[in-house]
Design brief:
- The structure is a single chain.
- By secondary structure, the chain is an alpha+beta fold.
- 19% of the residues lie in helices and 57% in strands.
- Strands 1, 2, 3, 4, 5, 6, 7, 8, 9 and 10 form a ten-stranded antiparallel beta sheet that branches.
- Strand 1 and strand 2 form a beta hairpin.
Length: 183
């Protein structure tokens, strides 16, 4: 005795809708953005007797892998040399489209007085043509999904090896961690 199963279009549609919703939720899981320092260019020197301050332009490649656009607030990136704060770079408020890449040009200023405290190590780094800089920044913003803004904070820690003579980026390690705040 076989029991005959009755086909139901409403059950099929509910099942298909559930599968689509589950797929959307899985693919919408927030992903950490990526940051890569592309180049460093010298903008100018400022005489700050008895040393010189350097003004640089940092070109950073940012990727938003998420399926929603983001809006972020302005912040300051701290730049460290040998454990001491050497300078900072300004990140202007802005936005970035979903699943996109963007180049940011960040004005930075390095303090010659702070570098003078590490003159022995700096001279050795210039002779080796390798200088290790660390950078840290926290960027706050919001991603709009339908009618709701989902606030987030991204912390980026970077270790960059540069040639202090030609300002070439030799190597870098970037770690970005995103925290999402649920309302």
């Amino acid at each position: 005795m076989e029991k005959k199963v009755k086909w139901s279009w409403s059950s099929a549609l509910i099942g298909a809708a559930s599968a689509v919703a589950a797929t959307a939720l899985i693919s919408a899981k927030p992903k950490d953005p990526t940051f890569d320092l592309i180049s460093i260019s010298l903008d100018s020197f400022k005489l700050n007797l008895p040393v010189l301050d350097a003004e640089l332009i940092l070109t950073v490649h940012v990727t938003n892998p998420n399926i929603v656009p983001i809006h972020y607030s302005s912040t300051t990136m701290s730049i460290f040399y040998d454990g001491s704060l050497l300078g900072s770079a300004q990140v202007q408020a802005g936005s970035q489209s979903a699943c996109s890449c963007k180049l940011l040009r960040l004005p930075a200023r390095l303090d010659g007085v702070q570098l003078a405290h590490h003159v022995t190590k700096f001279v050795a780094d210039v002779a080796r043509r390798e200088m290790v800089l660390d950078a840290a920044v926290e960027i706050g913003g919001a991603a709009k999904v339908l009618w709701w803004d989902h606030k987030f904070k991204v912390r980026v820690d970077s270790r960059v090896t540069v040639d202090p003579v030609f300002l070439d980026v030799i190597d870098q390690e970037n770690n970005a961690e995103m925290e999402i705040f649920h309302a």
